[in-house]
Design brief:
The chain has two helices and 15 strands. The chain is mainly β. The N terminus is likely disordered. It comes from Hufsiella arboris.
Length: about 325
């Protein structure tokens, strides 16, 4: 009976997840990493200046889940020795009856391997929380036992990453989270909690910060996300800065959703998301920036769903 309840709950959760794949819902990891790489890799803390802070808010425009949003904040900086960095980041996401919270305290150590090559290694300790309010769901069978209780998971988490920077222009990073999950009971929440909260996730990031004498700047980046035993995603992003005042950008994301654990004829499903964005530098020193991004799913059926509005604020104090 216990196993039957788990399977029933799993089916309900999967229906929730699949029902949102046809429109741009609020993402746990949306465009935050464009403004702060700390969200995907702890080794990036302290690499942008003496003190960095940013806030990110994503709001779903309309659709099945009116109560849909993502809030992210990050603060990081350098210690007095300029060789190690610290950082705190928090992300809270809600999509209908689903809610997610992740938070980390991060530390990174920076080493100059040569005059052009720098390496950083970082670790983060925090927690993850996943919750589905089953009571508010409408079930086919009245008083279905599977909908009498909430699905809830809360656990400690650890993550680690490494970063390389060449000639102060090109960078690359590799990181993993959910490192403690290998020691947890694999039967706990096996049918309810998504794989990204139960299995190790890998993030591979490549990018560049290119500045030109005519006042233009170009920042391309590529992010690859792999949940071992789960979903795969990659994102291409390009930003063009003009006169150190205004920046225009475009991002393309492809999600490959694993369906092997469900009773469907397909083993995976895909969705494509496009994010045009604009960012304005309020101060001449680039210390305060405001940004706006509109995310939309290119494969959504007409009239089913729309997109999401993303707002960002970035504050930076450069190293003297």
């Amino acid at each position: 009976m216990k196993r039957l309840l788990k399977l029933t709950a799993a089916g309900t959760v999967m229906c929730l997840l699949l029902s949102g794949k046809s429109f741009a819902q609020a993402d746990l990891l949306g465009g935050q990493y464009i403004f702060s790489k700390v969200y995907v890799n702890p080794s990036f803390v302290g690499t942008d200046g003496r003190l960095n802070a940013n806030a990110y808010y994503q709001m779903n425009e309309s659709g099945q889940a009116s109560n849909s949003y993502t809030i992210s904040t990050d603060v990081d900086g350098l210690f007095a020795n300029n060789k190690s960095g610290w950082g705190l980041n928090l992300t809270r996401s809600r999509f209908g009856n689903d809610s997610y919270t992740v938070a980390y305290a991060n530390y990174a150590y920076h080493v100059d391997l040569s005059s052009d090559l720098k390496m950083s290694s970082g670790v983060g300790i925090g927690f993850q929380q996943f919750d589905i309010s089953m009571v508010q769901l409408q079930t086919v069978t009245e008083n279905d036992p599977a909908a009498m209780n909430n699905v809830y998971s809360s656990k400690l988490d650890a993550r680690a990453g490494i970063r390389l920077e060449y000639s102060s222009k090109f960078y690359g990073g590799l990181s993993f989270d959910n490192l403690i999950s290998v020691y947890s009971n694999k039967e706990d929440y096996q049918y309810q909690v998504p794989p990204m909260f139960r299995k190790i996730n890998m993030y591979a990031l490549l990018g560049a910060n290119l500045e030109y004498s005519n006042g233009f700047g170009f920042q391309p980046s590529f992010l690859f996300i792999k949940t071992f035993g789960g979903n795969t995603a990659f994102e291409l992003n390009a930003m063009l800065e003009m006169a150190k005042t205004i920046t225009f950008g475009i991002a393309f994301r492809q999600d490959i959703i694993d369906l092997k654990s469900t009773n469907t004829s397909d083993d995976h499903s895909t969705q494509s998301i496009i994010r045009p964005l604009i960012q304005y530098n309020v101060s001449k020193t680039n210390s305060l920036k405001f940004g706006y991004c509109y995310s939309f799913n290119t494969g959504r059926p007409t009239g089913v769903g729309k997109g999401s509005h993303d707002l960002s604020v970035v504050f930076n104090l450069p190293v003297k």
